[in-house]
Amino acid sequence: MSKGRKIMITMKDIVREGNPILRKVTNDVAVPPSEEDQQILLNMLQFLKNSQDPEIAKRYKLRPGVGLSANQIGLNKRMFAAYLTDDKGRYHEYTLINPKIISHSVNMIYLPQGEGCLSVDRQVPGFVPRYERIKVSAYDLKGTKLEIKLKGYASIVVQHEIDHLNGIMFYDHINKEDPFKLPENIPVESLY
Ligand SMILES: [Zn+2]
């Protein structure tokens, strides 16, 4: 499948756990991004939008997702798309290239229901502690450098995606002995 064209990503394009590409640190993307890379990111963003549209999701059997990294569609490229409504009801849409967390809070948060992943076809119970606030540097589709401050749910989603780009899965953060044990000596709160 050529990913440089406008195409519709479906679940068959999503790489699942066990595939070694999910454990690789992805390569930086050339900036400004090529037209091909821009189109790939737009296809990824559209997948997320489609997956959250009940009719389209049903028709194409899409699992709803809020974030998708390029290695999750088999591409070794440091970029991701995210599309979500946060815990304050604010809407977020990102297509970020070479993202990097440049600073973060001490305080941490977690989703009480745990995290899920389009590349993981099973429930993995446990708390995934994430920084409550992060500042991210990245490039947008035009190659413009951005600095974005995120908190709450959006911060969690973006950390999940940047982890993917570093070969890290969400369950790597779950305590091995007790999946519901949280880090000690750090303030950690449930998001909801
Ligand atoms: Zn994931």
TrEMBL record:
Removes the formyl group from the N-terminal Met of newly synthesized proteins. Requires at least a dipeptide for an efficient rate of reaction. N-terminal L-methionine is a prerequisite for activity but the enzyme has broad specificity at other positions. Fe cation binds at C117, H160, H164. Its EC number is 3.5.1.88. Its cofactor is Fe(2+). SUPFAM superfamilies: Peptide deformylase (SSF56420). It is an enzyme of class 3 (hydrolase). The keyword Protein biosynthesis applies. The gene is def. Pfam families: Pep_deformylase. Signal peptide: none annotated. It catalyses: N-terminal N-formyl-L-methionyl-[peptide] + H2O = N-terminal L-methionyl-[peptide] + formate. One of its GO terms (molecular function) is peptide deformylase activity. Belongs to the polypeptide deformylase family. The active site is at E161. Binds 1 Fe(2+) ion. This is Peptide deformylase. Keywords: Hydrolase, Iron, Metal-binding, Protein biosynthesis.
